[in-house]
Amino acid sequence: MTVELPPPALGGGPEAESTRKPSLPPPARRGATLIPETVVARIAVRAAHEALIRHAGRSTSRLGLGPAHSTAAVHDGSARLKVSLDLPYPVDIARACGEIRRYVDNRVSYLTGLRLDGLTLFVQRLVSDESLRRGRAE
Q1: Strand, helix or coil at 72?
Q2: Which pLDDT tens digit goes with each residue over 42-92?
Q3: Where are the domains of the chain?
Q4: Quick check: 62 and 86 in contact, CB under 8 A?
Q5: Reported pTM
Q6: Could you read off the pLDDT of 90-103 as tens digits, one per residue?
Q7: Strands annotated E in 12-114
Q8: In angstroms, rounded to a whole number, what is the distance separating the alpha carbons of residues 138 and 128?
Q9: Which of 127, 131, 104, 4 is nearest to 49 (CA)?
Q10: Which helix (H) or strand (E) holds 101?
Q11: Would the CA dihedral through 56, 58, 63, 64 be positive or negative?
C-alpha cells in the first residue's frame, strides 16, 4: 500500500500566513557589499604581477623584479589606486606602463565591481638583464 503525503508548505499556503515575515526591500535598497581597501590593494598587486608576466613572457622572479606594492582608497563605489613596481630593462616604459595600467584597471573593476577614478603607476626601478647575468655563473 502506497500513501502519498502532501508537499510541505513553503510559506505560500494559507496556514503560513500568520508566520510570514515582511517582504525584503529590493536589492538596491538593502545595502551594499563593502570591499576593504586592503583587499582592493591586493587585487591590484596581483593584477600588476599578471600584467608583467603577460608583457615580459616569463615570471617576475626569473626577471629579478621585486614585488609590487599598492595602496587603495575606496569611497562610494569607486576606488583610487597607487601601484609601484619594478620593470625589466630594456623596455619601452610608456608602452609597458600603459598596458599594465589598462590590465590593472580592467581586472580590479571586473573582480570588485568598483569604478576606478584614478590609477597611478610608479616605476621603482629598472632591472637590466645584465645585472641578472652578473649574479649567476655561466
Answers
A1: strand
A2: 999 999 999 999 988 877 777 889 899 999 999 988 999 999 999 999 889
A3: 34-129
A4: no
A5: 0.71
A6: 889 999 999 999 99
A7: 69-75, 78-89
A8: 17
A9: 104
A10: helix 93-112
A11: positive
- Rounded to an integer, what distance in angstroms lies between the CA atom of residue 123 and that of residue 86? 6
Report residue 135's pLDDT band, with 50, 70 and 90 as the boundaries.
Answer: low
34-129: which CATH number, 1.20.1260.10, 3.90.1440.10, 3.90.245.10, 3.30.300.20?
Answer: 3.30.300.20
Pairing of strands 69-75, 78-89: antiparallel
Q: How far is CA 98 from CA 14, 71, 132, in A?
A: 62, 19, 25
Cell of 55: 608583457
Buried b (16+ CB within 10 A) or exposed e, 10-28: eeeeeeeeeeeeeeeeeee
The amino acid sitting at 30 is R
Say which amino acid occupies 80. R
What does the chain come to in residues? Answer: 138
Cell numbers representing residue 121 in the block: 603607476
